[in-house]
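Have a close read of this protein, sequence plus structure tokens, and explain what the tokens say about the fold. Thanks in advance:
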Amino acid sequence: MPQTADEPDAVAVRSWCSLALEALGREREAIDAINVYPVADGDTGTNLYLTVESAAAAVEAVFAAHATGTSVPSAADAVRAMAHGALIGARGNSGTILAQLLRGMAGVLAEGTGGDRMRLALAQAAAWAREAVAHPVEGTVLTVADRAAAAAAQAAPGADTAEVARAAYEGARAALDATPGQLPALARAGVVDAGGRGLVTLLGALVEAVSGRGPERPYEPPVPFVPVGGDAECPAGDDGGGGGPAFEVIYLLEADDEAVERLRARLDALGDSLVVVGGDGLWNVHVHVDDAGAAVEAGVEAGRPYRIRITHFAADRAHARPEPARRAVVVVVPGDGLAALCREAGATTVLARPGEPPASGELADAVRRAHAREVVLLPNDADLRHTAAAAAEQARAQGVRVAVIPTRAAVQGIAALAVHEPDRSFDEDVVAMTSAAGATRYAELAVAERQSWTTAGICQAGDILGLIDGDVAVIGQDVPGTARKVLDRMLAAGGELVTLVLGENTPPTLAEALEQHVRDGHLAVDTTTYRGGHQGAPLLIGVE
């Protein structure tokens, strides 16, 4: 990044993420179409896009945290956020390797900027990515990363960041063109490596971010591309025809280094395409196996796995996908308890953990998984409004009719789902669901992290805050007392049904006490209680 000051450095990182996301958005389908190795599942471009989207969102969050002050993030803060965002949002084999590449670069660039630091960053990125893959194969993104780093190292002495980035880009281009001669699967299909093409796209965005103009020679594929499902022939063992593992398993893992080393050995014995990236107690694990349960169990033995995603390759290829349903509902939920409740009601769910909101690609992926001609999307968070709109646009481009109902809380989503009727017209269903959500006032309890001003006065660290419709309305000392005051304020304006959603560590006796409190003061009001699981807030409240 430019060495002049922290501001250009941080802004360059932000610009790189934005330009890379834009470029991958343009090339995603083309990259998907040439994806024949290690599994011909046509999703490399999409996985790279979703991974970079998560990285970009993390960088934007760092800038947002500085928005109220006079300073901007440092380069170190920006590159570390980029790497962390990619790690937690990595998708597929390609996205997991990309996360490690960015992590390697961030480890160097966080200590300083300039041409020499960029050389070191690219070298460390290539080395770390290769170390993360259990059995590296030449002719893949690893080879392209190696050649990019080697070309950067050969840049003229004293070259600035932009010159080093251009050298890396040109080296990556040349390496990508050579991949069909290194990997028989690519040669038979007449394509270059999909992951390597994605890396060339990212390096092109880097050149533009640090120099202000794109590469002089935009990448053009050297051979005709053959779409996956056409004449491409997959090599033995890459699961293209039924000989390879049936499942892709990905999860984030909290574990120490020694446990991860044992996990690598166990997963390597279970399957192939093993990539484990991360560090400092947080890892992203990717493997192809026949026994998905065993891969997850290995993670449980090593530490705490979460965000577990299992894809059944064999089912996708062996059977024609059924006709799409007429209509489906996609719901964002804050806890696993509500996720189970919504799935029982027929909805497709996306889990939003505290501090980890889903990206638009994750919501668009859920819309695709719902496999319906019409989809109602319930974001259940005011901050996800723009994310949901972007996901809807992605889905509409693929021919799906999508309506986003601007639900701002999970209890509004529950109310909307309760009146969903797939047999009536789409417009009538959306209107009914929107009305139900809009008629539901919402509240939540939260624990104050520090002393601060609120709309209800000054709170101290550890105080219990009662937020009604997004604003702090009550400051209390304990959960039961604060919850009663919140309920009284909400019911003062009327209501027929109270919905309580208890957090994972909230005792069920609280629900019993609050139900009795409602009965004592409001005879005509019913109360329904759900267990929300690990949802962050100790209590969510809805009043209809």
Summary: The first strand starts at residue 247 and ends at 254. The chain is about 50% helix and 20% strand.
